[in-house]
């Protein structure tokens, strides 16, 4: 088959180019257990076509992966998700979503490198998975906020009860969100940026 030179596309699409006004870029990691909505959040909020590494789930995961509450899920992230959002004309966030299945958690260390902060997505149907996730961030000293993804069939709890169950200090923000909605996901990222700003201000005045 003959191709014309005009048929070949090389390099990023025009809409994927970094805005010329961008002056600072920040790496943010979105973490959580299996099926909590990390890929969904990256996809809903990204201003570029997100990069995903989803693969079809197979029998190899039966008895190994805990998919309670996500039994209908047919694909899973095996490396990372990647997206980008401009918070202002000058500030750009690069978003990295981690794989949720525990057998892929060894990849988290590389994704944490250089991250300024993180969003911990939780599912109240499987709250216990979040303990290890939060523990890993605390061990690495990565500042984070917690976002409770609003699944239709998930139990609702007062935020202070969730804070107590997760043993979160008062200064760590915990918010509700709907990872399917761009505005809601963006609000979560803004909460994280305000939290990181408050940490920087406190350090500067110390």
Structure description:
- The chain has 206 residues and is of the alpha/beta class.
- The protein is built from 5 helices and 8 strands, in the order E-H-E-E-E-E-H-E-H-E-H-E-H.
Task: Count helical runs.
Answer: 5
Mean pLDDT: 82
Note the beta-strand portion: 15-25%
Helix/strand order: EHEEEEHEHEHEH
- Measured between the Cα atoms of the first and last residue, the distance is 68 Å
Summarize this entry quickly.
By secondary structure, this protein is an alpha/beta fold. It has helices spanning 38-45, 108-112, 129-140, 159-166, 182-205, and strands spanning 24-31, 54-56, 75-77, 81-86, 91-97, 117-122, 144-149, 174-177. A six-stranded mixed β-sheet has the order 4-5-1-6-7-8, sandwiched between helices. A two-stranded antiparallel sheet has the order 2-3.
Features:
single chain, 206 residues, alpha/beta, six-stranded mixed beta sheet, two-stranded antiparallel sheet, 8 strands, 28% helix, globular, disordered N terminus
């Amino acid at each position: 088959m003959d191709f014309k030179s005009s048929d070949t596309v090389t390099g990023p699409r025009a809409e994927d180019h970094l805005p010329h006004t961008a002056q600072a870029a920040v790496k943010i990691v979105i973490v959580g257990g299996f099926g909590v909505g990390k890929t969904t959040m990256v996809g809903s909020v990204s201003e570029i076509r997100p990069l995903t590494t989803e693969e079809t789930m197979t029998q190899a995961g039966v008895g190994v992966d805990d998919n309670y509450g996500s039994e209908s899920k047919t694909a899973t992230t095996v490396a990372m998700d990647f997206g980008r959002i401009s918070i202002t004309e000058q500030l750009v966030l690069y978003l990295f979503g981690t794989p949720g299945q525990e057998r892929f958690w060894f990849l988290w260390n590389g994704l944490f490198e250089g991250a300024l902060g993180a969003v911990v997505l939780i599912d109240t149907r499987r709250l216990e998975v979040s303990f290890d996730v939060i523990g890993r961030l605390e061990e690495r000293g990565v500042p984070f906020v917690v976002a409770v993804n609003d699944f239709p069939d998930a139990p609702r709890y007062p935020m202070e009860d969730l804070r107590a169950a997760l043993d979160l200090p008062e200064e760590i923000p915990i918010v509700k969100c709907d990872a399917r909605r761009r505005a809601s996901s963006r609000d979560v990222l803004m909460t994280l940026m305000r939290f990181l700003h408050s940490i920087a201000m406190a350090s500067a005045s110390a």
